[in-house]
């Protein structure tokens, strides 16, 4: 009888452990899927936006990350591919001067406090700005990833896009909600 009680307790402990681990594993799986979706969307942002002064096709389309890489290397699959006849390069940037070469700058949410200075530095430069922290688009960022009901969404700030002299194709606009810069 003692063996049976021990076996029952062992099975109950294993089931409890599995119940606790399963949501954590499911949560990690959702996070990884979200990173894949965002990485794919970054490619589409490059594809469906154009600067009024287009770059030469021999110039690379440089995707920059300011802060740590929230994509855990998932952007590496974009490296070397082409978008709008331009070869894609992925770079990590640490200084404002390095941002001059960027076609698209992803500002990691951990760098949120630096956004006002980055925005000022990039003013009048044709660098598409993207982040995933809440409020990025309303504070002058061009494209913000959102999360609504466990789905990745997109906000586009047309004031910021127009101010940097970009055009956004309807195909991308249909996926997004449009916001304006909050008055300061």
Describe this structure in words.
The protein is α/β, with parallel strands linked by helices. The chain has a single domain (31-179), classed as Rossmann fold, CATH 3.40.50. It has helices at 2-47, 96-99, 115-122, 158-163, 170-173, and strands at residues 49-51, 61-66, 82-83, 86-93, 104-107, 128-131, 143-148, 151-157, 166-168, 176-179. The strands form two sheets. Strands 3-4-2-5-6-7-8-10 form an eight-stranded mixed beta sheet. Strand 3 and strand 4 form a beta hairpin. The longest helix is centred in the N-terminal third of the chain and has 46 residues, at 2-47. The chain starts with a helix and ends in a 5-residue tail after the last strand. Residues 3-30 have low confidence and may be disordered.
């Amino acid at each position: 009888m003692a063996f049976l009680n021990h076996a029952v307790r062992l099975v109950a402990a294993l089931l409890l452990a599995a119940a606790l681990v399963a949501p954590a594993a499911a949560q990690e799986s959702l996070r990884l899927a979200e990173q894949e979706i965002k990485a794919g969307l970054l490619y589409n942002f490059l594809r469906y936006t154009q600067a009024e002064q287009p770059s030469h096709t021999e110039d690379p389309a440089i995707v920059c990350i300011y802060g740590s890489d929230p994509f855990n290397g998932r952007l590496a699959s974009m490296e070397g591919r082409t978008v709008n006849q331009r070869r894609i390069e992925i770079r990590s940037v640490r200084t404002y001067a390095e941002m001059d070469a960027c076609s698209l700058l992803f500002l990691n949410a951990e760098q949120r406090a630096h956004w006002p200075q980055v925005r000022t530095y990039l003013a009048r430069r044709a660098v598409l700005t993207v982040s995933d922290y809440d409020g990025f688009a309303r504070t002058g960022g061009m494209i913000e990833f959102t999360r609504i009901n466990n789905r990745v969404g997109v906000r586009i700030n047309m004031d910021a896009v127009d101010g940097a002299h970009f055009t956004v194709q309807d195909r991308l606009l249909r996926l997004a909600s449009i916001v304006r810069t909050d008055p300061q």
